[in-house]
Specification:
593 residues, mainly alpha, MetI-like fold, two-stranded antiparallel sheet
Length: 593
């Protein structure tokens, strides 16, 4: 019996050599992955880990469950959870109702001056949430609010003379009111697209069957846009869960805590920093938001994709006749404009012109001056904050958009192996509240193991925090833009011998420049108006305009100087948004096709 000859063995490279070859071939993808893990992943891992440890950040203790025991044993935890749920849910419903009504009036009715109405809906974008809260405090504070003083004068004509009120902004309904009118603008933009693209044939059929306008709106129109309504509501609910500015300025004086403010004052309270306890609160918060984001993207968006109500060549928009209600509908937009921009701007302007704030009166008119505006240029703290904010906005916007651009290039253009994971890693910050990001960076960079990188207390740590916060938006912007650009020019460059890097900078980047500029402006504007992260991470030398504004308003109670700074900030943002719109429009018109 003849033995079979053994088969020749195939030589295989050692595992280390294979791994090295993989790194060399995909070095850019590995580098970007490492950056994302460092910026996004590592701080969150440290935060969750620290929630199971005792001691302080600079001197961590052993493993313990004491932080979670303290969280669940504290009645304030459940009060804050309930307040957070009520606040987020009611604000989402109210703002979505306003946005849907206004979007329907603009896109589906014959209301006059629709272009002006559109503009009035977008103007509130220029007003940061902190300024809106400040303005409504000046109007509706129980003792000195302008509206309350006027109402008490009117009630006095009928023999009633209350000591305060009758309205009180320092309540949960007050918080909900301020945020509802402010948050409807973003949802308006979402609903406008749904109404614009909706097939009008079903509405026409309802009208021919004798249905009235309101019946057609309720039974047909809202039914067709229901998937978008659900998606918009969930998006708004997620954003309102982490809202910090309105609860801080309006809720805190009344002792109304939501989860973001509870986390902030646990970490930075007068009784001393309790980072372990704050980490436990934050870990619970992260779990809630991550679960909701998964629901949003796995259920809501899937359901949305199953509905299609846009026709092809026969599509034509149809406008419902409002009849005698046409001008009443326009009046709603005027009221909305007055509530969101007109009244707040007027009361802030009034306060900024007074030496010390007081309610409007004939005597107060003699005290008006521009002294506070001149003081803005003399106050060293404000001048330093302006410089810090300008530098922070430029660096954060550039770094965030550059990172998002490279991520999109790897995922959308090169389709590198593991690109889905890379894209998901850039999107994770969307599910992480701002207070969680700020606390995570504090714990990460104050940890004894990170003393070799002393960026805590510098502008760099604020830059990293803001990059983490806005990376999800930036990556969605560049992903969308890159999928719209044809690969023909890049393929032609490759045929001509150009390498990937040269093609990236000479072909792809110029094609995406308008989208890059648009995203850059969005990130820069939100960096300027962000209060949460600078408030948690800034020190005496790294104050921003937002944190300085809060300092003069809350800590020094200098309402007039704070209002002057707020009016100046609002004016600069309005001018910047106007110029940015012109720049982006010009960029798109000159972009190569």
């Amino acid at each position: 019996m003849q033995l079979a000859r053994p088969l020749p063995t195939v030589w295989q490279a050692p595992p280390l050599r294979v791994a090295w070859r993989l790194v060399v071939d995909h070095h850019l993808a590995f580098l970007i992955t490492a950056i994302l893990l460092w910026v996004v992943g590592a701080p969150i891992v440290f935060l969750v880990t620290f929630s199971f440890r005792g001691g302080s950040v600079v001197s961590p203790g052993g493993l313990t469950l004491a932080n979670y025991q303290a969280v669940y044993a504290n009645p304030l935890t459940y009060t804050a959870l309930v307040n957070t749920g009520i606040y987020a849910a009611v604000v989402s419903v109210a703002s979505l109702a306003l946005a849907t009504l206004f979007a329907w009036l603009v896109e589906r009715t014959d209301m006059p001056c629709r272009n002006w109405a559109w503009t009035m809906m977008l103007l509130p974008i220029a007003m940061p949430g902190m300024l809106a809260s400040m303005a409504w405090i000046l109007m509706l504070s129980p003792k000195t609010g302008v509206i309350n003083v006027a109402l008490r004068g009117l009630m006095g004509l009928f023999g009633a003379a209350p000591d305060g009120g009758p309205l009180n902004i320092y309540t949960l309904p007050g918080m909900i009111f301020v945020e509802s009118v402010r948050g409807s603008t973003t949802l308006f933009l979402m609903m406008v697209g749904a109404f614009r693209l909706m097939d009008p044939s079903m509405e026409e059929a309802a009208t021919m069957a004798g249905a009235r306008v309101l019946t057609s709106l309720r039974r047909v129109t809202l039914g067709l846009v229901m998937p978008m309504l659900l998606a918009a509501w969930m998006y708004s609910f997620l954003g309102n869960l982490e809202d910090f500015e309105t609860p801080l300025l309006i809720g805190l004086p009344a002792g109304i805590y939501v989860l973001p403010t509870l986390i902030f004052f646990t970490a930075y309270g007068a009784s001393g920093a309790q980072h372990g306890l704050a980490s436990a609160y934050t870990s619970i918060f992260i779990v809630i938001t991550v679960v909701l984001v998964l629901v949003y993207y796995r259920v809501i968006l899937r359901r949305t994709e199953r509905f299609a109500s846009v026709t092809g060549k026969g599509f034509r928009p149809r406008r419902t006749s409002l009849g005698r209600w046409r001008y009443a509908a326009l009046g709603l937009f005027l009221v909305f404009f007055a509530v969101t921009i007109g009244l707040p701007l007027l009361v802030l302007l009034w306060a900024s012109l007074l030496p010390v704030y007081e309610v409007p009166s004939a005597a107060a008119l003699t005290k008006l001056s521009l002294a506070h505006y001149a003081e803005l240029l003399r106050e060293s703290q404000i001048v330093g904050a302006i410089g810090n904010t300008a530098l922070l906005a430029a660096v954060t916007a550039t770094a965030t958009m550059a990172l998002a651009f490279v991520v999109s290039w790897l995922v959308v253009r090169l389709k590198v192996r593991g690109g889905i994971a890379l894209d998901a890693l850039s999107f994770i910050p969307h599910a992480i509240p701002s207070v969680a990001i700020g606390l995570a960076l504090v714990i990460f960079y104050l940890n004894p193991g990170m003393r070799w990188l002393p960026i805590y207390g510098t502008l760099w740590i604020i830059t990293l925090a803001l990059m983490t916060r806005y990376l999800a938006f930036a990556s969605r912007t560049t992903n969308s833009a890159m999928t719209q650009v044809s690969k023909e020019l890049e393929e032609a460059a490759a045929t001509g011998g150009a390498g990937r890097i040269m093609t990236l900078f000479r072909i792809t980047a110029p094609l995406l420049l308008p989208a890059f500029i648009s995203g850059w402006i969005w990130v820069a504007a939100h960096t300027v108006r962000n209060l949460t992260l600078p408030l948690m991470l800034s020190t005496s030398g790294t104050q921003t305009i937002a944190s300085t504004l809060y300092y003069y308003w809350q800590r020094k109670a200098d309402f007039s100087l704070a209002s002057a700074l707020g009016v100046a900030l609002l004016s600069c943002m309005a001018v910047a948004i106007f110029l940015a719109r012109k720049l982006v429009a010009r960029g798109y018109s000159e972009a190569p096709s």
